[in-house]
Specification:
Elements: H1 21-35, E1 47-49, E2 75-77, H2 84-87, E3 88-89, E4 109-110, E5 124-129, E6 135-138, H3 139-144, E7 147-155, E8 169-178, H4 179-186, E9 194-207, E10 210-221, H5 222-225, E11 231-236, E12 239-240, E13 250-252, E14 265-271, H6 278-282, E15 285-292, E16 295-302, E17 309-318, E18 321-329, E19 333-340, E20 346-347, E21 349-350, E22 360-366, E23 373-382, H7 394-397, E24 410-414
The structure holds the ligand Nc1nc2c(c(=O)[nH]1)N[C@H]1C(S)=C(S)[C@@H](COP(=O)(O)O)O[C@H]1N2 and molybdenum atom.
């Protein structure tokens, strides 16, 4: 495990002090108030023991990128090297992620081409392509459709693949119109199998030697699109979407990695061929070595459904009693286990908040830690019998790109 010495940007030592009941309720609103009935949140009188392995702050570009983050030889970003601190924003320290619902002002933001300015009064969403009935919906028309809500945890698939991005995950209650209902209204033609979601944001990219102006886009199969959980979302935690999180309308596809949740939606296009845009087929492609009958197979797969994972959020203490708490997500979580200093795995207690797509908080007592440095690892299990893989699992070790890093990770504290 690598260690990172510098502290996270924007936090001071003073903020590391006690988090009491009033702060937790104030930060998380009513949900946090309810959550206080459960054990995973810091209780009154408990103090947070900060991790000693704080991530470095997100670097301003241009910087030396890890090899896997560099665009390919036949594809480059016309504006030059990527600038991580313009893309990855508003990360919280893990110790501060203390409410089951992440407040809007603390929700992470991934912004690849900048934040488009959109007038909600003239906004419209177009549904076009291989459909019998093309649609053009204003924001008011979208809001007039039956309102659907879903609590869903979004994680950037690059989370924990880069040393400076280890908390690009949050949980919110999203509200909007049913995506399936709108697609049904548009009536895809028989050959319309690929549904492309296009954002208002765009950038210049060079493909081979052609410079194109390309909008952010992602696609899903018609089958995946018709899942009843998907929404065309205009509200986040009962407020309008913040500008950086997709105002006025974004896609929310519970159970998929962040990149599939297209923000600032402009157009939905029904097509009959696979969509191979940057964020489907060049970027956000996981390259992994698999052994099939002893032979290497290099799988190259587009980032898709979220994978099972967990993370220790923080260690708290009251007098000489210690507790480790954290979150698990990316599947129907059934159990979480925690290991200290490579010892035996202990079963954590899971908080009761549920929702098929929301993270679960967990906690475990740590009765008598000795003075000194300790490492803490968690692993999640789901109801389908999956286990979060250890770092040396071939699934993780054979992966050459940084996306989908759902393996077990160690955090460190000094007692
Ligand atoms: N139009 C558009 N949608 C986008 C992005 C983007 O840059 N442009 N970033 C994606 C990525 S990579 C992630 S992880 C999520 C993050 O959602 P958030 O910024 O609301 O946290 O948005 C996704 N949707
Ligand atoms: Mo992402």
């Amino acid at each position: 495990m690598e260690r990172y010495g510098s502290t996270h940007a924007g936090t001071s030592q003073g903020e590391e002090a006690m988090i009491n009941r009033r702060d937790v309720v104030a930060q998380g609103g009513a949900m946090a108030g309810l959550a206080m009935l459960n054990s995973a949140f810091a209780q009154p009188g408990e103090q947070v023991v900060p991790w000693t392995d704080q991530p470095p702050s997100v670097p301003p570009g241009p910087i030396q990128m890890p090899q896997a983050m560099k665009p390919g030889f036949y594809w480059t970003v016309a504006t030059g090297p990527l600038e991580p601190d313009k893309i990855i924003r508003n990360l919280q320290r893990w110790e501060d992620m203390n409410s089951w619902i992440t407040p809007n002002e603390h929700f992470f933001q991934i912004v690849h081409y900048g934040i488009p300015v959109i007038d909600p009064g003239t906004y419209s969403l177009v549904v076009t392509g291989l459909v019998e009935q093309p649609l053009k919906l204003s924001l008011d028309q979208l809001k007039a459709l039956p309102r659907k809500q879903v609590t869903s945890t979004i994680e950037c698939s690059g989370n924990r693949g880069l040393p400076f991005a280890i908390s690009a995950v949050g949980n919110a209650e999203w509200a909007g119109a049913s995506l399936a209902q709108i697609l049904q209204q548009a009536k895809p033609k028989k050959n319309g199998t690929e549904i492309v979601f296009i954002g208002h944001d765009a950038g210049d990219e060079v493909i081979r030697d052609v410079t194109i102006r390309s909008n952010f886009g992602r696609s899903m199969t018609l089958d995946d699109v018709m899942s009843p959980n998907n929404i065309l979302c205009y509200e986040m935690n009962n407020a309008a979407l913040p500008a950086a999180n997709g105002f006025p309308v974004r896609l929310i596809v519970p159970g998929w990695y962040g990149v599939a949740n297209v923000k600032w939606l402009k157009r939905i296009e029904v097509r009959d061929t696979r969509y191979m845009g940057r964020f489907m087929a060049r970027d956000y492609v996981t390259v992994r070595e698999e052994k099939i009958n002893g032979e290497s197979f290099w799988s190259e797969s587009s980032v898709g459904r979220m994978l099972l994972t967990s993370a220790p959020a923080r260690v708290v203490k009251q007098g000489d009693r210690y507790r480790v708490m954290g979150m698990a997500w990316g599947g129907p979580v059934s159990r979480v286990e925690v290991q200290v200093d490579g010892g035996t795995w202990q079963t954590a207690s899971l908080d009761s908040q549920k929702g098929d797509f929301a993270w679960r908080f967990w906690s475990v007592d740590w009765p008598k830690p000795t003075a000194g440095e300790h490492s803490i690892v968690s692993r999640a299990f789901d109801t389908n019998g999956n286990v979060q893989p250890p770092a040396n699992d071939p699934l993780i070790a054979g992966k050459k790109t940084y996306w989908e890093s759902n393996g077990q990770t160690a955090r460190h504290v000094r007692i």
